[in-house]
Design a protein that fits this description.
The chain has 268 residues and is mainly alpha-helical. The protein has 12 helices and 2 strands. A two-stranded antiparallel sheet has the order 1-2. The protein is globular, with a radius of gyration of 21 Å.
Length: 268
């Protein structure tokens, strides 16, 4: 019995200063997202725009789950937090900016490159601000911070998806003479669109966050069904589904601002 107890003790994470390999799973997911981001740049260089966008979408999904996996597995670490930030900068800053520049912005010459750089800088600034505010919130541990139900500004994964919307629409509406042609083929319009979301990412406007949402148990099955429908849409009607998601999010921005404004007004 003593031997059995000893074996069980050695299976724990902290025995002899060693950790279980399962604690590396969140970091492995983060590296997978980073690899997807790098691969999207490769596809863009090759002119394979569909694959480039899909690689960013995959990186976005992985990014949405690696933090949750780390918390569920009690495997959060300082290394993981730093790695996640670096991965986000590449996947949602450098990669989308490079893709959009190679796709259309280069036709605008130096202005196109400046827009790509500004977008990447905006992502870097947003991530840096988020990390600083997150650490400050941990120190305060105030009730207001814990009850916070919105993001400040547009999150970088969402900003990346919104920035690539003209490319996504071009993949769905490629026919000549389509009513969206000006938006999809004009470097000037695309540059302004990217600058808009660069500003929104570093802005202080409130945007919806699902992290603090609490559901009634009866809503679990419908929510899982909706998620399954979303995945099916992404697989079988990729571009229309992404356009729909971007449209819904764009509509949610003013709604979130309105709701937050009235909540703050009532709390005063």
């Amino acid at each position: 019995m003593a031997k059995a107890g000893k074996r069980k003790k050695h299976s724990d994470d902290s025995v002899n200063g060693r950790m279980s390999i399962y604690r590396l799973v969140p970091n492995m997911l983060t590296l997978a997202a980073l690899t997807a981001g790098m691969t999207s740049i490769q596809y863009a260089i090759q002119g394979r725009w569909e694959n480039a966008v899909i690689a960013i979408v995959i990186a976005g999904f992985i990014d949405g789950f690696d933090g949750a996996v780390a918390r569920l597995m009690n495997a959060s670490s300082k290394l993981g937090a730093e790695l996640d930030t670096l991965s986000d900068f590449l996947c949602f800053g450098v990669a989308p900016a490079t893709i959009m520049y190679l796709w259309l912005l280069q036709d605008a010459g130096k202005i196109g490159w400046i827009v790509a750089v500004v977008f990447a800088i905006a992502v870097a600034l947003r991530l840096a601000r988020y990390n600083v505010e997150d650490k400050e919130a941990e120190k305060r541990e105030s009730a207001a911070d814990k009850k916070k139900t919105h993001f400040t500004g547009v999150p970088s994964p969402t900003g990346a998806g919104m920035a690539m919307l003209p490319l996504i629409m071009s993949l769905q509406f490629a026919e000549d003479g389509h009513k969206f042609d000006a938006f999809m083929t004009s470097p000037e319009y695309v540059a302004l669109w990217m600058l808009l979301f660069a500003v929104l990412m570093v802005s202080r406007i409130p945007t919806f966050s699902t992290k603090q949402v609490r559901l009634h148990p009866k809503m679990a099955v419908p929510l899982l069904g909706a998620f399954g429908l979303l995945i099916a849409g992404l697989i079988h009607a990729t571009w229309i589904t992404l356009i729909f998601m971007c449209t819904v999010y764009a509509i949610s921005i003013p709604i979130a601002s309105y709701v937050t404004y009235h909540k703050d007004k009532k709390s005063d």
